[in-house]
């Protein structure tokens, strides 16, 4: 039996090449397909429901010098995958079944898949010719919005193809699911959303929540009606943007956003970049609004939330307490700059903190790589996680809290019957993977390979 499964080049070809060519963007296809059902290196894993991964490296525990964690102990295992879950986890060579397709991981480290909880798949330069953003010095957010109003019509013809190209990129970095913001604006109407939904329909192996995002201002661009149409198209979250700096009316803007969420029983995910007192006031207003509308509790995400980085002491503690009481979550790109986000303090209070790419490359920023391991690396750097234990713990920000070892050093993932969404990386342990941003060799969604190098 011969089984085909895409290599890295093939996978990117399959996900993006056809639509890129249709859009007039050149793309080089691989010379020939690769065949699986083999233990030879560089062949892709079998794309079947029941198979074995051989010689997979799993973390077993921490090694200590006194109380200090100084290393991570690992061993090789053979793992049986069946119907999207871990069916068996055995010491390497102990329970091999030659009647099943097999793939040799050659000692690559198995880690949980990552997820990207803040990205814009609908508008990007990725997949097209190189184009750096124009200078930002002296530009306001309204200037950037004006620039986008010119760009969006130029990007729309290839937006589906480029979204699919980014999905391929994310898979190559170990990510199997995402939350994407999608422009709802007078320039594109619902076209950006329609194109994004078409892209996602071609990739059932990439579950993605969608946020209807009024990038040009909910009130400023008068898109309340379009936002409601987006809800009728099955969008999961109502978005918002800087209610004071863009809409010029904090309470009215937030009230309009929350009203859509209440009317359609959806969640909220708002971009809040404001670092002035208006940003602090907006967060407090959100806390108060959720308290008055308990059906919103646990359904509101604060994206960016830079105003939190301006608070300290009692003021910060009180704000975090309020957010925790209303079960708000935070999506942060883990920015490095003058302000440091209080992410550990948020997490210590029980607030879910997620991370994401934001943009891979667009007119806002050219620096996105699509790697959530890179985000874990930034987290470790910012919050003093340079030792073995701290590096291994930093992985949580990329995986939604899933870690191979508990804080006590006991293996807690993977376990039999867990969902087999995972990645194989060229690293000896998770600490090394985070510190060195190790290359991903293969990515699996519910047991099926979606990428292999």
From TrEMBL:
Identify the keywords attached in UniProt to this record, alphabetized.
Signal
Q: Which NCBIfam families match?
A: PRK06846.1
**What InterPro entries does this protein's entry cite?**
Amidohydro_3 (IPR013108), Metal-dep_hydrolase_composite (IPR011059), Metal_Hydrolase (IPR032466), Metallo-hydrolase_Enzymes (IPR052349), TAT_signal (IPR006311)
Designated name of the protein: Amidohydrolase family protein
User: Start and end of every Amidohydrolase domain?
Assistant: 170-450
Q: Which residues form the signal peptide?
A: 1-28
Task: Offer one Pfam family short name for this entry.
Answer: Amidohydro_3
